[in-house]
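Bumping with the actual sequence this time:
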Amino acid sequence: MSRHSQATGFDIRRAAAQRLQLVLTGAPFVPFQQREIADSRDRALANKLVTVSLRRHGQISQILGSVLEKGMPKRAGLFEAALRIGVAQLLFLPEMGEHAAIHLAVEVIKKDRRAGRFAKLANAALRNVQRGFSVEDLDPKDLVPTWVFARWERHYGAETAVEMAKAVLEPVPLDLTGQSGDEQSDIFDEMGAVHLIGASYRLDDRDVPVEELPGYADGKWWVQDVAATLPVQLAAVTAGQSVLDICAAPGGKTGQLAANGAEVTAVDLDGKRLERVKENLERLKLNAKLVEADATNLSAEKQYDVVVLDAPCSATGTYRRHPEVIWHRREKDIKQRAQLQSEMLKNAAHLVKPGGTLVFCTCSLEPEEGEKQMGAFLQSHPQFEVRAIMPEELEGWAEPVIEGGFLRTTPNMSLPKNGKGLDGFFAARLQRTK
């Protein structure tokens, strides 16, 4: 892309619309990289346009439903994506100019082969948005799908559900997990990161790629949301223990376990994702045995002191970082994933030594993939009992400890110190008694 594209803005809007179009058809959002947009300012702008469009997706849908009397045109190329980018700029990025928002969105549509015939419709729609809508009038409930909000309202209460929905608008910091060592705090001090809990640190702002931050090349830390660190922290593994990490990729939990001196076997169904685990471990100078296998039928020939199962789930708890996730999900997906989790848990139970520990976790906010899953498992596996999680294990942080002795984080939750916001996670710690 031309380094001069920022002068007109057209190339940036077209690139953003093309990327957003991929997400609208079901792909995950992959931010633009340097090889795609060389100029850092242009790249940041393109990513911002797509990100704001995704974070405000539900509200923009409501707005477009009001200004497009006949609905969204079919087979219209970049029309919808470019229109969404235009609305995002008009309402949520006013500092970029209302005229530019309308003009550039219409130009992108006009010059797209399939969308061009709808350029006048786009112009009229955007001018109606300009005249008829303000941010203050928008309902935060529309930030997430109706069925998602209804579930959260039933499970967490109306007030918390609204706060959870609004969390999608909050800036997402970079959370890092550090290895042990006296020099660690110096590295995080150097980059301006603050301590959160355990070995987790947070960097609110950065102006360089992750790979250029202090300590990365030396393997002193890795990127991992603070919520994702908690299950392994609660497993409390010690040096020399045998640990099975099921569904290990991308390897954050594997790194935690190996850094504690455990003898780790990391299992994942996807060989390519395991390759990423291998690369991360090599950078971190940590060791683990990597096994490509189906977690629903692992051999029970060997049993382990600790088994950690970070099960595939709806991932609704990750919407702060990946706002498209909850729009790509359907309610039936939760039931399907819960069934898969049940099968994995049943197999994992055979792999725990008597007296050993089983940690189950998901990055889901849905009870079927957390509390209800555990209730069903414990009823059918009397040889396991809950080892209740205590606030003292979380440096006195009591809010995530819920009824039953489980852990539940929500994206609107305040951390024990230094900030607010983390992925939604559920974790249970069980002990095999016989």
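The tokens above came from a reply further down the thread. The first strand starts at residue 174 and ends at 178.
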